[in-house]
Amino acid sequence: MTNVIDGNAVADGIRADLEDCVDTLDNAGVTPGLATVLVGDDPASETYVSMKQRDCEEVGMNGIHVELDGDAAPDELYDTIDDLNDDSSVHGYLVQDPVPDQIDYREVIRRIDPAKDVDGFHPENVGRLVAGDARFKPCTPHGVQKLLDAADVDPEGKDVTIVGRSRIVGKPLANLLMQKTDGGNATVTVCHSRTQDLAEKTRRADIVVAAVGAPELVDGSMLSEGTTVIDVGVNRVDADTDEQRSSSSQNSSSSDDTEKGYELVGDVEFDSAKEKASAITPVPGGVGPMTRAMLLYNTVKAASQQED
Ligand code: GUN
């Protein structure tokens, strides 16, 4: 029987633990605060940030949301960032990616106070992660580690193939999985658009993580019997035209998605992959809820660090 890993249940458990931490901090006079900044009105991003805000409320944290017009000048965003850096009630914050073309996201990240960078995207935090001294583990890779743990799959000594080399998922996850720590010690192969014979790399893996933003790229024929499959992809496939947009991790499905004209599919062709896998994450309901739970986790960590 294949274990279909329930990301919502694992995320619920993490949120329950965090509620206790929030209570303890609250009793000490500190309410962890998470701010989200959205520039423009991308519908998917609007959904993601509203879910992050709802999560904050659920665990008793302060949620602060800042919205800027899609034609906002870079300086307007920089001023917002400077204010958030100075605001002691905001322990962590993020600027939702993507931002409009007039804004350079890399410059945005560099301006965020690394101590409040709960995404873990700031170069200082990326450097610390690679050095094995992470301040904040990036949310999706950390969520993947927690899902493996919940499924009783220890990466130590295993061959892991990651499909996708993104800044947000593939690269940091490769780093975490190869480190000499619990949840690491794996042998990691990272595949990308120029990889030759992808199926050969996925077939030899004990664990496959698909995080490339290509709908149903990995199917059962590319897997060996007993593989653990983690699907990070969230692709909105237009129900009528097959057009698709993808994001890396933050799935936000509701039961009426098809009524909105799109369906959500992962980077893995679920039915054929499930035939081969010993454990597999669904889309939605796998990695997406974990990304959000780990954002709360990082915010609680930031609050504790800033109050020390
Ligand atoms: N857009 C898609 N995923 C993410 C994420 O993890 N953080 C931010 N800030 N934007 C995103």
TrEMBL record:
Q: Which GO terms describe its biological process?
A: L-histidine biosynthetic process; methionine biosynthetic process; purine nucleotide biosynthetic process; tetrahydrofolate interconversion
Record pathway: One-carbon metabolism; tetrahydrofolate interconversion
In terms of CDD domains, this protein maps to: NAD_bind_m-THF_DH_Cyclohyd
| Keyword Transferase belongs to the record | no
Instruction: Extract the Gene3D superfamilies matched here.
Output: Leucine Dehydrogenase, chain A, domain 1, NAD(P)-binding Rossmann-like Domain
Which is one GO molecular function term here?
Answer: methenyltetrahydrofolate cyclohydrolase activity
Subunit info here reads: Homodimer.
The name of this protein is Bifunctional protein FolD
Source species of the chain: Halococcus morrhuae DSM 1307
- What is the gene name? folD
